[in-house]
Amino acid sequence: MTVTILGIESSCDDTSAAVVRDGYILSNVIASQEVHRQYGGVVPELASRAHQQNIVPVVDAALQQGGVERTAIDAVAFTRGPGLPGSLLVGISFAKGFALATGAKLIDVNHLHAHVLSNFLQERGSKKEMPQFPFLCLLVSGGHTQLIVMRNCLEMEIIGQTIDDAAGEAFDKCAKMMGLPYPGGPVIDRYAKEGDPGAFRFSKPCMAGLDYSFSGLKTSFLYTLRDKCREDVSFAEHHLADLCASLQYTIVSVLMSKLEKAALQTGIREIAIAGGVAANSGLRNAVAAAALQYGWNVFLPEFRFTTDNAAMIALAGYFKYEKQLFAPYDSIPAARCDAIR
Predict the structure, then answer these.
(1) How far apart are CA 41 and CA 78, in angstroms?
(2) Distance CA 104, CA 106 (A)
(3) Superfamily of the domain at 135-300
(4) What's the pLDDT tens digit per position in 180-218?
(5) Per-residue model confidence as pLDDT tens digits over 126-149
(6) Dmax of the chain from CA atoms?
(7) CATH 3.30.559.10 fits 4-121+305-339, yes or no
(8) Which of 322, 327, 302, 323 is nearest to 25 (CA)?
(9) 152-157 CB contacts, 8 Å cutoff, 24+ apart
(10) Using an 8 Å Cβ cutoff, are 61 and 17 in contact?
(11) Is it true that 4-121+305-339 and 135-300 share their CATH fold?
C-alpha cells in the first residue's frame, strides 16, 4: 500500500508545499518573500500576511506538479515549530482545513528534526547513499546551531547547542554591519572565495563542553570594523573580501572544533550537516577535509534542501505516519524548541 504525504512548511518567510510518496519526492514548491530584503531581516507581521496569500497557490502547484489528487493524500504534515508564531499559524490552520475537507490524517513536525532528515530526501530512481544510524548531525541555520545524535528516524538527542546567537545569525548580522544585503550569509560566502582568511583575527568563544556561542564573535567583528573605519571611512569597502573570508573562517573553525570533539566523544563516524548554513562552501569544504583526516562518512544535503522546504516536512511526516503518530486538531504553534513534544 502506498502512502502519500502532503507537507506544509511556514515557519519563517518561505511558504512551501511538497508531496512525498513512500519516502520519495514527487514535488517541492517554494514561494519566497522578497519584501523582507528592504528591512534587512524578516518582519513577522509581513511574513504571516504573505503566507496567507501564498499558501493556496503553493499547495495547488505542489499537487499539480506531483500529479496527485487531493483525495489521494493520506496525511498532511505541517511544521508545528519552532518558528514565528504568526507564520506557523497559517500553515497549521491550512493543514487542519485540508485534513477536515479530505479525511486525511494530521501530523505535526519539528522543523529542526525535518532539517536533519533532509539528508534522506531523494527522488524515485536516484541512487543516494544514506547515513546509517546512529549518526551525528551538525544543524546550522539562521536561528539554530545544534549538535544532534540521531538514534533512528524519529529519535534525536541534542548534545550541544548555542547558548545565545546562531551561526547563521552571526553571518547575517555581520553582513549588515558591512552594508551587505539580506540574507548576508550567501553574500559573505561569495566574497570569501576572493579573500584572505588570515587577514583579520576575531575572538573565538571559550565554551566548555559541546555548546556554542557566537555573540562575542559578533562583538569582536563590530569593534574591529569600528576601529578600522575610524582610520579609513572606506575600510569595509576596500577590504570586503578579506573581511568576509576571515569572518567565515572564524565561524567555520568554531563549528568544526565542536563537531570534531563530539565525534571523538561519541565515537560516531557517520557525520551529516543540515540547515541553511550547510550550503556554505567554507563549511562544506571543512567537513570534507575532516572526513579525510578522521575517516568519517560524510553526508551533505543537496543545496536545494538546505533552506526551508516542505519536502523535508513531508518526509518527517512519512516516518511518523509509519508509526501512526498523528496530531490532534487542537495543535497550536510552538515558537520554541522546548515546547515541542
Answers:
(1) 24
(2) 7
(3) ATPase, nucleotide binding domain (3.30.420.40)
(4) 998 899 999 999 999 999 999 999 988 889 999 999 999
(5) 888 999 999 999 999 988 999 999
(6) 70
(7) no
(8) 302
(9) 153/117, 153/120, 153/319, 154/319, 154/320, 154/323, 154/325, 156/113, 156/116
(10) yes
(11) yes
| CB 212, CB 160: distance < 8 Å | yes
65: pLDDT strictly greater than 70: yes
The predicted model gives 286-312 an average pLDDT of 97
Sequence ranges of the domains in the chain: 4-121+305-339, 135-300
Whole-model pTM: value is 0.94
pLDDT (tens digit per residue) in 143-178: 899 999 999 999 999 999 999 999 999 999 999 999
| C-alpha cell of residue 13 | 518567510
Q: Rounded to 5 degrees, what angle do the CA atoms 257, 261, 264 make? A: 145
Q: Which three cell numbers stand for residue 181?
A: 544585503
- Count CB-CB contacts under 10 A for residue 201: 11
pLDDT > 90? residue 336: no
The residue type of 214 is F
